[in-house]
Protein: Dehydrogenase
Organism: Paenibacillus naphthalenovorans
Amino acid sequence: MDVDDASVFIARFENGALGTFEVTRFAGGNKNGKRFEINGEKASIRWDLENMNNLEVYFADDEPGLQGYRLINCTEEHHPYAGAYWPAAHIIGYEHTFINLVHELMNGIAKGYQPAPNFEDGFKNQIVLEAVETSSTKKSWVRIDSIN
């Protein structure tokens, strides 16, 4: 059986930005570590599934003595989903992500809008993964629009 237990790749976006992606099942100390981090010239943001109730943000234009990541609690009632569950500051869990998906699907059907993510989003994701595999095989850059 071939299993992609680790992968690292870079992406070049239309606007010239570069992205780095890393996926592994071998990162010691992680039980189910799924992290997203986006770093830009003026700000950065990161989120971790193992600490899913918090979002960290950094702004480069903060005063030097105040610079650093800010921790935002995403379980306050102002969050679009948190208010439907518990009082403010009570945590939401992994299972709530599935409840939210079903909620979006049912609302989309009832109110006539396309929920996100949708099938097209999943298909586009698969195209990106196919481009990564093709790039690895060819050992060269591969344009997303070249994948059939």
Remarks:
- The chain has a mean pLDDT of 88.
